[in-house]
Write a structure and sequence with these properties.
The protein is an all-alpha fold. The chain is 77% helix and 0% strand. The longest helix is centred in the first third of the chain and has 17 residues, at 38-54.
């Protein structure tokens, strides 16, 4: 059931019908609130968190944090390890945007630990890119370079061309800030 709800929500998001997506997801949360269907609850909260962080104006970042926390609370009661890193990465991204660096670093490290345990190379690419962004934003440019390079060299096979191009762009910016132009 949750896959069809999530697909429908993503269709609404893709057509920029954000209010319908939010209504659908909130109704889903109400419907499953008293159930032990952790997968449905976690996925629904994750999508709401994504929606608020990516598509709704910045003043709703608190809503994004709320839904990510709720999804994390639910997912941590399960052994649903393949989704945990994805959730932690996205939550850490919102935390970085909010300049809550210590907490963001914690969730990125937690995501990395689980992704390594589950051999989720696809997620390890994103974890390293996000760690690079974390270090970039905290002005540790050599460490940012290290993480961007690690993402590209060790896990680049798991990313598409657009994702790798963005990572190279971030890497170039980090080199720029340490005055290494060639």
């Amino acid at each position: 059931m949750h896959k069809s709800i999530n697909t429908k929500a993503h269709l609404y998001i893709g057509t920029q019908n954000y209010n319908r997506a939010i209504r659908l997801l909130r109704n889903t949360l109400k419907k499953y609130a008293s159930t032990t269907s952790y997968n449905t609850l976690a996925h629904t909260n994750r999508i709401l968190g994504d929606l608020y962080s990516n598509y709704i104006q910045i003043q709703n970042r608190d809503s994004s944090v709320y839904f990510y926390k709720k999804a994390i609370e639910i997912i941590e009661k399960t052994d649903y390890d393949y989704i945990k890193p994805h959730l932690y990465i996205n939550y850490a991204d919102v935390l970085i945007q909010s300049e809550k660096y210590k907490k963001a670093h914690y969730y990125l490290n937690l995501a990395e630990k689980i992704a390594l345990e589950t051999s989720s190379n696809f997620r390890l690419y994103y974890i390293n890119v996000n760690l690079g962004v974390y270090y970039f934003d905290t002005k540790d440019f050599p460490k940012a370079i290290e993480k961007f390079q690690k993402a590209l060299q060790e896990y680049g096979a798991y990313a598409n061309g657009d994702q790798k191009a963005l990572t190279y762009w971030l890497l170039a910016d980090a080199y720029y800030y340490i005055n290494q132009f060639e």
